[in-house]
Fold this sequence. Notes:
Blueprint: E1 6-15, E2 26-36, E3 41-45, H1 52-59, E4 67-72, E5 75-76, H2 82-88, E6 92-95, H3 109-120, H4 126-139, H5 156-168, E7 174-178, H6 186-203, E8 206-210, H7 214-220, E9 223-228, E10 231-237, H8 238-243, H9 248-256, H10 295-299, E11 305-307, E12 310-315, H11 320-325
Parallel strand pairs: 3-8, 3-9, 6-7, 7-8
Antiparallel strand pairs: 1-2, 1-4, 4-5, 9-10, 10-12, 11-12
Helix pairs in contact: 3-4, 3-5, 4-5, 5-6
The structure holds adenosine-5'-triphosphate and magnesium ion (MG).
The site of adenosine-5'-triphosphate has 12 residues, from strand 2 and helix 1.
Amino acid sequence: MTAPLLELRNLSRHYGGGLTGKAGGQRALDAVSLTVERASIFGIVGESGCGKSTLARLVAALDTPTQGEVLLEGEDLFALNARALARRRRDFQMVFQDPYGSLDPRQRVGRIVAEPLHVLDPRPSKAAREARVAEVLESVGLRAGDAARFPHEFSGGQRQRIAIARALVTGPKLVVADEAVSALDLSVQAQVLNLVLDLRERDGVAFLFITHNLGVVDAICDRVGVMYLGRLVETGPAAEAFERPLHPYTRLLLEAEPRLDAAQMPPPRRPAPFAGDPATWQGCAFRPRCPLATERCRAETPLPRDLPSLPGRFVACHHAEAMAAEPHRLPPAKAQKP
Ligand SMILES: Nc1ncnc2c1ncn2[C@@H]1O[C@H](COP(=O)(O)OP(=O)(O)OP(=O)(O)O)[C@@H](O)[C@H]1O
Ligand SMILES: [Mg+2]
């Protein structure tokens, strides 16, 4: 059996408290495990500050984990030496949120898009490089001639296509997209999402697609992972997870969705459950907001597990069986203490 395209094993990133995260640290990411198959789109959702970008940076090897592994086709990225990692980068690339800030305004598009090629091969032939840039610009719906223009000559949607072209120029197997469509207006967003679907279909590119927009996940993702305060609380096929959430937090996100806007959602209680001595990092982090919380949720951290009746789905909640049995009968969320 071949290894999956991407596998995260127990991935953690703690800030402060030294690299061991022993004392006073903040767990931006905590023991996240998931698998992304070839040519699939895996969505990551969760509120602001839950660790999505931290996860993206680790997968793109732009940051180093406190613990755990990032395996690309079975190979641990953080076990590679710098040269081997640089070579391996052709297989995974990243697209950021801001189509304005992520492109150097002083460089022509051709040079911007060709940049990852330089990292791989410092002296590629000019003709080969230009041909590849033209090809990849056309593959994202721009023109070969756009290589000669500057970023300010393009709209936000076109700039995001340029950023995607840059990510695709090495022919990656995986693209990590961190809020890549969030800054775009709806019609442009739809075009870029269609491009993502095309790239998956036509070129077999897989995406780790990070967004706070459940509608985007619903539209394009095969699987979804829901994060809360650095932990993955639920993963499964996107359609099933949204139809029948197994974690009360997923359900809360879905209920909040018609009102949209993260600004309108109850604020996450950030550092409180996570700061301080790891010995006290115990229990379910969602407990203060959970309508189903019991004494067990305080005493015992729920670990991700599967439910035999629902293959392919994983959930970290003591009440998953109750959620599976009666997904539509949750009591209303408790009022927040100030
Ligand atoms: N360099 C850093 N030093 C200290 N703490 C950090 C650092 N980077 C991130 N954090 C903290 O880690 C947590 C997760 O941050 P992250 O940027 O991953 O969240 P996010 O889910 O991407 O949020 P958003 O939706 O707003 O982009 C936050 O509490 C943040 O303050
Ligand atoms: Mg982020």
